[in-house]
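User:
Note these tokens:
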Amino acid sequence: MLSGCKTLGCTCEPLLPNNVSRSLQSAVVAGEEEESIRMRLFMSIGSLRLLHNPDKNPGVEESTAYGSPALKIQGKLLAFLPAHRSAEPGSLVVRVGFDDRAELLAADPDVYYVTDHYLNYTSVLVRLSRVTPDVLRDLLGMAHKFVTARRA
């Protein structure tokens, strides 16, 4: 279940291991069609790959975090698909400072949110269905600056 996107006619590697993404698997239990969940998962990973632009973000690499697809720089997380059940399906975790997160949450709470689990982490959850590719690129740029500034 939820092992890959080959059922969508794609030849890429499996999207997530079977034991990942409890929130998506709980959606199956709640009665949502598995194909709908696969499509949302496929779109989420596509959004993550869209963010990966080596020309604009040197040193950023595709990786994993907590068993989910992620983008990292020098081993530090920039963005990843949340595996924690508190995150809404179709979300992305983006690393930002607490001040930036507060501004994002205040500016557009329909797009950005945080759950109790992520409250003490320097990150914000993003509802991917409500953002454009340009906004995603800007968020990755914000995460890139945040993570590399912390390393300096």
